[in-house]
Structure formats: structure tokens, C-alpha cells
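Example (one chain per record):
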Amino acid sequence: MNHKEIHIRYTEYENMQELSAEDRELASMAVEATVNSYAPYSEFHVGAAVRLTDGTAVTGANQENIAYPSGLCAERTAMFYAAAKYPDIPMETIAIAASSHGELCREPATPCGACRQVMAEYQTRGGKPISIILVGSRKIWKFSCVDDILPLIFDSLGKD
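Predicted structure:
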């Protein structure tokens, strides 16, 4: 028997001014995208912004539906749009922000498991790490790749 550990690394920032200019722009886009959320049931408005390797950026927002789970998270909305519109351009970074009752959440909102797995698929498909920026009003977390928020990524189909 072997005991093993998984370690992750991330950077914590106190505010958006500490981010690089391009990360600050993407984080701001995610915050702005929260207003496009349709969340009449949860009142939890999430926005996401994806930057592609060519510099193109797209946004998405969560879309709820009274018939749960027919809605879609902001992260997947943005990633699916990016992949449909720009299928040959890999994703480089995704920023995610959430607000509740008109105010940015204090703590960064973390992606659900389904969104993490979709990020992992696009990271594999693109052949390069996708960094993740999680925006809160009191702190911002930046992860260098999807593996840091989803260790032991499911990728076993077709492998021995």
C-alpha cells in the first residue's frame, strides 16, 4: 500500500488591480456578464468570460429554467459558445464571477463538477493549460490549469 497526496497551487489577489492588464480585463468582463444571467429562482447570477489564444474573448451567463436541471451554468455557456464560434482556436483563460442580490459575492464562486469536467475536455482538446480566475469582492484566486481545480480528471475512455 502507498499513501499519496495531491497538491494544488494557486495565487490569491486582494483586488483586481493586482491582476495583469489582460486578466483584469477578463475578470471585469465576467463581472459585467453577471447582469445577463437569468436566475429568477436562485437569485445567484454568474458570469464567465473566456479568452482564446488569439486574444478573442467571449462571455456567458447562467440561464436557469423552472424545470431543473434544464438550465446551464455561465462557464459552460461561455465555453460552448467559444467552441462553436471559434472551433479551431484553443481556450487560454476563463474568468468566473458571481453576484447575489445585486452585489458581487465576497468569496470567489467555484465551478460545479460538470463545468470543471467541460473545462478539462477543452484543455485536453486545445493541448495547453487553461488558467482559471475566480473573482470575489474580497479576494481573487488564479489557478494555472484545470488540473488544479479538478485533480484526477476523467479521461479514461479508450485508454488501457
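Caption: The chain has one domain: 10-148.
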